Amino acid sequence: MLTIVPTPLGNLDDITLRCLSALKSADVIFAEDTRRTLILARHYGLNARIERYNEHDDKSVAYAHNVLLSGKNAALVSDCGTPCVSDPGWKLVAAARASNIKVESLPGPCAATTAIAGSGFPSGPFVFLGFLPRKRSRVIKALTAAATLNSTMVVYESPFRIVKLLGLAAEALGPDTQAAIARELTKVHEEWLTGTLTSIGAELAKRDKVLGEFVLLINPRKPEEPDEDDDTED
């Protein structure tokens, strides 16, 4: 059996009892980064064998698949949050399902839902874009297309490209588009910035160093536009 196990975004207390039980009962834990997973394992006294899973290496995927075929119970974790959601894992899940191996997907921490809940933006329908492409034209195309849905957009970005992304988003959607940034969610230095794409970009650009992992939330609705969740029947 393969169990998809979400792990804490940063605060190690943010793990469910069911996720802990799955990790404790696994024969092997396949991890995006064994060093990160070892910290969790030591904290909770996990004794399962931890092995690296590299989604970009066909041999690594095949090895993990063969472990499942041998009858072992395996848990799949990423560095933090939910595997397969802008994180490695989907190839192994697809291989397991193709081989009729049971797959369990457990609920738990996810940066996208944590950020959208705290943003104050409409959160009925939302558009999850994960990590956008590197090429400028493709970024603008993705943001422009998503904005047509008139729903809150959720984007992941690294500290090295967040200022550039804000600039491209302002170019694609307009400088006064409402936005929010969630940095280092659940960690000691968690920070929120709200305003427009331009104002948040200017604030980050002033800093000597931009550190941490970012979730960018964009509300493409104009201030005068009602939330579609509030629509009433004619």
Radius of gyration: 20 Å
Name of the top-level CATH class of the largest domain: Alpha Beta
Number of strands: 10
Poorly predicted runs:
none
CATH architecture of the largest domain: 2-Layer Sandwich
Q: What does this entry look like structurally?
A:
With 234 residues, this protein is an alpha/beta fold. It has helices at residues 17-25, 34-44, 58-69, 90-98, 111-119, 136-147, 162-173, 197-205; strands at residues 2-4, 28-31, 49-52, 74-77, 103-105, 126-131, 152-157, 178-183, 191-196, 214-219. The longest helix is centred in the N-terminal third of the chain and has 12 residues, at 58-69. It is elongated. The mean pLDDT is 93.
In short:
Helix content is 35%, strand content 21%.
Q: Helix and strand layout, with pairings?
A:
Blueprint: E1 2-4, H1 17-25, E2 28-31, H2 34-44, E3 49-52, H3 58-69, E4 74-77, H4 90-98, E5 103-105, H5 111-119, E6 126-131, H6 136-147, E7 152-157, H7 162-173, E8 178-183, E9 191-196, H8 197-205, E10 214-219
Parallel strand pairs: 1-4, 1-5, 2-3, 2-4, 6-7
Antiparallel strand pairs: 7-10, 8-9, 8-10
Helix pairs in contact: 3-4, 6-7, 7-8
